[in-house]
Amino acid sequence: MAEAVEAVDSVDSVVDKLPVIDVRDAVKRYGVGDASIFALNGVSLSIEAGEYVAIMGPSGSGKSTLMNILGALDNMTSGEYFLDGIEISSMDEIHLSIVRGRKIGFIFQSFNLIPRTTAIANVELPMAYQGVKAKERRARAMVALDVVGLGDRINHEPTELSGGQQQRVAVARALVTRPALLLADEPTGALDSKSTGDLLDLFDQINAAGRTVVVITHELDVAHRAKRIIRMRDGKIVSDELNKQRVA
Amino acid sequence: MSVLEIVRFAIRGLFTNRLRTFLTVLGITIGVASVIILLAVGNGSSKAIQASLDRLGTNSLQVRSGGGGFGPRARASVSSQKPLTILDAAALMDKSQAPDILQVAPIASTNGTCVVGANTSSPSTFYGTWPAYYKASNTSIQSGSYFTNDDVTQSRRVALIGQTTATALFGTTSPIGQTMRCSGIEFTVIGLTTVKGASGFQDGDSLVLIPITTMENTITGNQPLSSIIVEATNSKTTDAAQTELTAILDARHGISGRKTADFSVFNQASLLTTASTSSQTFTTLLGMVAAISLLVGGIGITNIMLVTVIERTREIGIRKAIGAPKGAILSQFLIEATILSVLGGALGVVVGFVGSHFTIAGTKPVIVPASVFLAFGVSILIGVFFGGYPASRAASLRPIEALRYE
What we know:
Chain A has helices at residues 63-70, 93-102, 119-130, 134-147, 163-175, 193-208, 220-223, and strands spanning 19-30, 37-48, 52-56, 78-83, 86-87, 104-107, 181-185, 212-216, 228-233, 236-242. Chain A is α/β, with parallel strands linked by helices. Helices cover 55% and strands 17% of the residues of chain B.
């Protein structure tokens, strides 16, 4: 697959900023003893602010496990994880919920909007948990929905929106808290090619505005929109390259 | 995140799942209402039994001819039986020998047909007695007047009749002052008795009462009394009165040693004890049915609450993934459960109160206040616990576990 990525460069030479993500020797093991399986087997990764990273790999390579750990949705068996300089790996549940709310915007393959709840209410939800006042919440949610091009659909419930529109509501929800990091787990997996193109254009815009974006995908054309491509296999990183097409 | 915000979330949660909310509330309502109504019916019927016993007069003793019980022994003594007479009744009024007896009413009874023009009526109760009977048997008149001791002494041909008899003989016109012919003798109706209603199979209002002397002189001759009603001074002295009257009658009828008594005494107080015991059994039975329905209702609430939380585990995962603290999620579900339980419980109380206004299975329900609090309290406890416990478990899951839940 390496030949598909035409431009290759060393990552280390580029990096000179404060890392948003700093994972050291992450291990995630399921089960115990001989029957145990290593979903992550010693992954170390550093992602700087403003990067646009794609993580690729076949199913079972551990990329989703890594994503869940990066998003503070799951814990690891051993290793350290610093997000924006804060250590996450030893944090308690109360602080973790704050980190999830303020530092991370998460986008799922299956959208994960709250059912039977309007688009605007879905976008307002993370701000509500942070204690943002109702008026400001509504204003910011309106702006976020405008940015993703759904300013005219704010009162639609998830079932009244197409897959592409639902995913854009999810993007608006992820962005509205102004997180340090936007994480997307197979965001185009349930979308048609038109919606996929629109969504990737949106990610480009978001990254161009300075936000760090990490996308998990197994689709090459999605990965090629990123500036850095990480490949995983059997719970380990096997390659970590800049995408020369995108990085001048 | 403010409490108000969480309450708003909870209410929105209830509104977005209208059918489930409705069914949960309905389940709790039925559980609470059935407990309240069932216990009210039990309570009402035991109150009704109490009231009808009070109407009978708990101070009364009834003396009848013949020994107590049946069988060869009772029949063997028939030849030597002395009948009850007016003199027996008079003897019981001796205050020195029977200080606990308030008054005594002899009853002579007959079967006869009363005729007015083309109308006839055969009263199921046709008694000759004297005025002491009114109080001892809880008889009163709604119009006209009672016959007096003077009427008895003078053996006047006057009568009190019940509503059923009056309607049969006189239709809708007032019977007071009218004449009727009973067993060939003409009587003037001077009073109409207050409606008693049926007791058992007997219509208490198919009734003719005349002075005992009139009955003996004109209809029956010197036939023995059918019974003597004895009223004790109060409900505590009925046993003493029974002992006294037994002693007096034993002496008068020459009963001593092995000779079997030729009369028997029925004590209303002992009847009361039996009846209230059976009404307590009835109430206990209904209480158990109510407890079971509350239990079943509780299991229903538990079931719906568990399903609700399990069904929304994924939603809990989403909320956690976007930064919801455990406390906020738990509070939301607890408030939802509380609103459902309180709403259902309150509606159940309302339905219970409304339902208790109707006559159910011939019984006027009387609400037991404790049942209202019990049913309401238990339904809320169950709702909150079984809504809160699974919610707390789901809220404690790592977001990824909750998200993967299908």
